[in-house]
Amino acid sequence: MADYHKLAGMMAHHGEVAIFRRFDKLNLKSLLYMQAELIHLEAELHQMELDEKSAANPSKPAYPFSVYDLREAACSGKVTQWTKYQQVQSKLQAYNGAVIQYVALRKVVKPDANSVECLREWLDRPEGGDFFLKGREADLWEKVEDLVSLDCQQPSKDALTRLINEKFVPWYHRRWVHRFKPSPTVDWYGVWQYDQGMLETVANAISTLLASLLPSISILVLYFLSKPVTRLVTILLFSVLFSVILSAVSTGRRIEVFAATTA
Questions:
Q1: Residues 162-190: tens digit of each pLDDT
Q2: 210 and 160 Cβ atoms separated by less than 8 Å
Q3: DSSP codes joined into one string, 23-66
């Protein structure tokens, strides 16, 4: 029977589908509310400081210079600068913590489209989630822009690796693998998993092949060209092709790709 326990087990076994909502709107609204509270507390504290400075009580002028006097005045049970400051301090700590947490949350990577689709399909399949989520909970993974992945092992993929993962692997699975039925095991959650290391090895092999073929092909083509203008145009085209391939097979920055192309 499918339930949250089975879903948690599947996410634990397949980290790439450990996908959760970030709740941007709620987090930002919470920050706005705490910020508004702090604005009012700040104004109240400032007004209390002004009022106590202008009072005739000779003991009050010591407040700006003595935290001890501020604390002692709070023992009277009345709302004083110190009690108001404690309110500000408590709210400020919560606000600062929420800001830091949200900044860290914004840095969490987004899941790739295949992982989101895999999770949705699993929730709908009879051997998977079997539509166990009901009502609003069934729409948790519909807003793609609000999702984050807890898979900390996600590598920085170049364009070629992403192409293999997002285009070739799904095509290969639909064309061939889905016909086979694995023997059920305790760890089987109805999810096929491909070895990422093997896919990266394939991408590296293609990159190596292109790196060796491209210069040889360019030399071979230029050998059969006699007109200087045609040669110059061909060199230009191969330079563009080199930069495009370099961008696809590497994760280098633009400046690094530019330097390699102009070298």
A1: 787 777 877 877 777 655 555 544 455 66
A2: no
A3: -HHHHHHHHHHHHHHHHHHHHHHHHHHHHHHHSS-TTGGGGGG-
